[in-house]
Amino acid sequence: GAVVSQHPSWVICKSGTSVKIECRSLDFQATTMFWYRQFPKQSLMLMATSNEGSKATYEQGVEKDKFLINHASLTLSTLTVTSAHPEDSSFYICSARDPRAGDEQYFGPGTRLTVT
Amino acid sequence: GENVEQHPSTLSVQEGDSAVIKCTYSDSASNYFPWYKQELGKRPQLIIDIRSNVGEKKDQRIAVTLNKTAKHFSLHITETQPEDSAVYFCAAERGTSYGKLTFGQGTILTVHP
Questions:
Q1: Which of B41, B44, B97 faces A107 most closely, judged by CB atoms?
Q2: DSSP secondary-structure letter at A88?
Q3: What count of Cα atoms within 13 Å lies in the side-chain half-sphere of residue B91?
Q4: Quick one: three-class SS letters along chain B?
Q5: N or C terminus of chain B with fewer C-beta within 10 Å?
Q6: Cα(A105)–Cα(A60) distance, integer angstroms
Q7: Tens digit of each residue's pLDDT (9 = 90 or more) over B7-48
């Protein structure tokens, strides 16, 4: 199946700093990618939809100025958590759909963010 | 928006028994329903999916049934094995939003040897 990678796999940062997470589709082009957040022992919650060449769309309750999304190419989307706080500590997972492969979504391995 | 409810939250079975997890959804326009298995700290792995034009789908020990009228779908695992122990999530793709998944709350499945 298609492969989606994320970098870094884990990151620790100080409160008030910004962190950038990359999501790449390695063997297919993705005009749309999705960013999810998963708190410990909870489900995945869609945060935003990343659209290549246009603005991301955010789910209700997600601050667009805090979670900046850039989808500059057909294989790369980035999520920047700005002015991170301890409550932003979570598992961030991206996904993308391979247009050649029907409905299945391919998830990245996730990024564990810890804000101290 | 879409709401997906999943039950039970925990399920404990003996090896060889069957396990059933149920989900309901609210968006009648939803057409795609995947099931994922997630191990601790790992990405969700698709184990089976179904589209709304099909009532049942089976892949070896795993099957999914869909009742679109009642807006519920279920995961059935037969002959469970200890390696089936994980968290299972159902999801529904929003009917009017390409690729956007709403996940259920998850079920922690434990298979005792």
A1: B44
A2: G
A3: 28
A4: CCCEEEECCEEEEECCCCEEEEEEECCCCCCEEEEEEECCCCCCEEEEEEECCCCEEEECCEEEEEECCCCEEEEEECCCCHHHCEEEEEEEECCCCCCCEEECCCEEEEEEC
A5: C
A6: 22
A7: 999 999 999 999 999 999 999 999 999 999 999 999 999 999
Single out the residue of A27, A43, A37 nearest to residue A79, CA to CA.
Answer: A37
Asked if A116 has any chain B CB less than 8 Å from its own CB, the reply is no
DSSP A43: -
- Tell whether A110 lies on the interface with B, counting CB pairs under 8 A: yes
Q: What is the sign of the dihedral through the CA atoms of B112, B47, A106 and B94?
A: negative
A 43-102 near B (Cβ less than 8 A): 43-46, 49, 60, 91, 93, 95, 97
**Joined tokens for residue A84:** 């991170």
Q: Which of A43, A104, A112 sits opposite B103 (nearest CB)?
A: A43
Q: Which of A38, A40, A32 is nearest to A4 (CA)?
A: A32
Q: What is the pLDDT of residues B65-99, one digit of tens each?
A: 999 999 999 999 999 999 999 999 999 998 877 78
Q: How far apart, in whole angstroms, are the C-alpha atoms of residue B81 and residue A105? A: 26
Contacts of B66 (CB under 8 A, 6+ apart): B33, B50, B52, B54, B55, B56, B72, B73
**Once rounded to an integer, what is the mean pLDDT over residues A7-14?**
97
The token pair at B108 is 């922690």
